[in-house]
Amino acid sequence: MKAVRYFGLKDVRVVNDLEKPVPSGDEVLIKVGGAGVCHSDLHIIDEGTVPGAQFTLGHENAGWVEEVGTSVKGYKMGDAVLVYGPWGCGHCKPCQQSSENYCDHQSEQAYGGGLGLNGGMADYMLVPSSRLLVPIFDLDPVIAAPLTDAALTPYAAIKRSLEKLMPDEYVVVIGIGGLGHVAIQILNEMTGSAIIACDITPERLAFAKELGASHTVNSKDADAADQIRRITGIKKAKVVLDFVGASSTIELGAKTVALDGDLTIVGLGGGRFQYNMMGLPFGVRLTNPYWGSRTELMEVVGLARQKKIHIEIERFKLDQAVEVYDKLRNGQIKGRAVLIP
Description:
By secondary structure, this protein is an alpha/beta fold. It has ten helices and 18 strands. The protein has helices spanning 39-47, 93-96, 141-144, 152-159, 180-190, 202-211, 224-232, 247-256, 294-305, 321-329; strands at residues 3-8, 11-15, 28-37, 55-56, 60-68, 80-83, 112-113, 116-117, 124-127, 133-135, 170-174, 194-199, 215-218, 237-242, 257-265, 285-287, 313-317, 336-340.
């Protein structure tokens, strides 16, 4: 079996000698149709955030049920499914509420397939429990694979702020990449707020306009915060969604978020925010959500099946994985790259 394996810091290789797994109990073997390539992978590869582990990469996965363990009910060979990304213990209160992304035992275990355990950049993927599958019905697994993160993560972040995203308010989206370009679509479908898109490249700002952003601002501009405030007026933006997470973007959000607003930092850019009493307007919620719940992933599938959201994808062969990671590092991927076995 072919797979894209992480062997340690800055060491990723495509191998051809793995055995095809055999499921038992509640395990399910998936024939992989597509595996999304996420910027989070680079934190593992380039920074060694999962030290000492060797595993198959890929945490955005979709395909077809190939074989089931003896305890599996409700799935049969050929069913098209997504693999829910964050794997919890399955027993604690958050897991019972389908929020395995906030499992009580997260600090004691690997985060999931492709994040410490074997993921889906392979011909086949062994999923440890059938509860981690979400049916996609008539969706193409190649197109659907990135829904598990590139759509689920912004969807869950936006849901936290829905009560504030009214038609007379503004929302700032910083970073129009794999997650940000989906966030604009979700905001247009679920809220009436005017969207201000921020990025550092004219191409991505033009892309944001195509997707429905009302305004665009180049976040590299020295007066970017002033440009945003000229659009919003004195009230500023009720919600800021930062899909970069660098110190500069967090600072931009702090300067443009409204009183009693939400500053939501999703990106893993390693930025820092030095809190002080006057550093944020009063009432602001500063949060760093992680992924989303299994039931929210079902809702995302509903949006995709109704063609209310789509993920811009570039297709690559599994053998091109190392090349694709280089493209991702250099900002050469528009939307999401998907590896196809």
